[in-house]
Amino acid sequence: MAQQADITAMRRAIALAARGLGSTSPNPVVGCVITDASGHQVGEGWHRRAGGPHAEVHALREAGVLARGGTAYVTLEPCNHTGRTGPCAQALIEAGIARVVYAVGDPNPQATGGADTLGAAGVEVTQGLLQDEAEAGNIAWLTSVRQGRPFVRWKYAATLDGRIAAADGTSRWISSAESRADVHRLRAESDAVVVGSGTARADDPHLAVRGTAAAEEIVQPLRVVVDTDATAVQPGARVLDDAAPTLIAIAEDAGTTLASEQVVRLPRDGRGLSVPALLAALYDRGVRSVLLEGGPTLAGAFVAAGAVDQVVGYLAPVLLGAGPHALADAGITTIADALRLDITETTPVGPDLRITATLTSKGA
User: Fold this and answer.
1) Which residues lie closer than 8 Å to 340 by C-beta, 6 or more apart?
2) Would you say the C-alpha torsion 174, 179, 183, 186 has a positive or negative sign?
3) What are the Cα distances from residue 304, in Å, to 97, 300, 357?
4) Closest Cα partner for 74 from 128, 22, 26?
5) What local confidence, expressed as pLDDT, does residue 61 receive?
6) Of 10, 26, 34, 24, residue with least CA distance to 54
7) How far apart, in Å, do the first and last CA atoms of the chain sit?
């Protein structure tokens, strides 16, 4: 059984890793804590930006000679390859670390093997401490590596009776100012924000991160509009300004006056554009996490394609009784085929309730 000191150190490493959300892609978020031979913390760090030093390197620099004979607590298995930075497993060995405790094994075939390298050098290695917590904090990167496509988080705001707008189409504002600010946090943690043509026409959304401290530091997410027939996004649309990069996804046979660098052409399917083709195109552009903010039609297409990994719903204490629902046709016709969710978090946000859930499997 893990000692409380180990748990405390790893929990600190997980908190440190979260500081990298929004700035490390396409790399993972990683945190590291180092204690000396007597168990006192002497260094800590996190991966701050892709191409920069990894968490272990920051922690070792802070610890200096006090790392010798100590323990390193890392949220992800130390890497074993040389990319833009050197292998962290070797850095830990050279620093004289005697013990390494890591939470999650590295699923990236190019980087895995750090634990074996450490063990071969005589370092005591332990895996799995607070694994679930560390996985949750790194869910986007882990999903992208394991599935070969971006992690997709679907966000929506609705009334308690499931409406996202009134019968006349008005929707500003169902959710609170606090919830809307929280959505900017989700944007800041994502590589891309995706909406559909209906949202583009109705709201002329801007989609960039605004109003948060992180907005000055993070890399602005790619703004993506799924505009199958190339009719919704016109010159002068807010999404075309220079606040963040933009990509308009249109059908292969659609005509457009937009600049070629702002457009990606994709095959159609029965619902509009092919969702797998869209995700593949985004993955090729380095996108590892997507915040899906589109309306019910686009959400239904993603759900039908099996391309939603997490749902974040903001439920407002409001009743409408009529108006569109959050999710349109998702190809589910009977209760036996319903998608079941595991609720991982319920958090009050202002007067609203934020529910976070992950998809499990069909059926009960």
Assistant:
1) 359, 360, 361, 362, 363, 364
2) negative
3) 49, 6, 17
4) 128
5) 97
6) 24
7) 34
Exposed/middle/buried for residue 360 (C-beta within 10 Å: 0-12, 13-18, 19+): exposed
350: which 2 tokens?
């202002």
Whole-Å CA distances, 67 to 54, 94, 204, 344: 16, 10, 54, 36
For the chain, percent of residues with pLDDT exceeding 70:
95
pLDDT band at 212 (very low <50, low <70, confident <90, very high): low
Give the up-direction half-sphere exposure of residue 63: CA atoms within 13 A in the CB hemisphere. Answer: 33
The C-alpha atoms of residue 246 and residue 321 are separated, in whole angstroms, by 36
> Which of 44, 56, 189, 293 is the catalytic position?
56
Rounded average pLDDT over 324-342: 90
Please choose, from the candidates 219, 161, 194, the residue with its C-alpha nearest in 3D space to the C-alpha of residue 24.
Answer: 219
**Farthest-apart Cα atoms in the chain, separation:** 69
Q: Which of 227, 221, 157 is nearest to 190 (CA)?
A: 221
Tokens of 168: 């006349």
* 60 vs 113: CA distance, rounded Å: 20
The length of the chain, given as a count of residues? 364
Cα–Cα distance, 139 to 142 (Å, whole number): 5
Tell me whether residue 293 is one of the annotated catalytic residues: no
CA atoms within 13 A on the CB side of 343: 7
Cα–Cα dist 297/291, whole Å: 15
Distance of CA 29 to the CA centre of its chain: 10
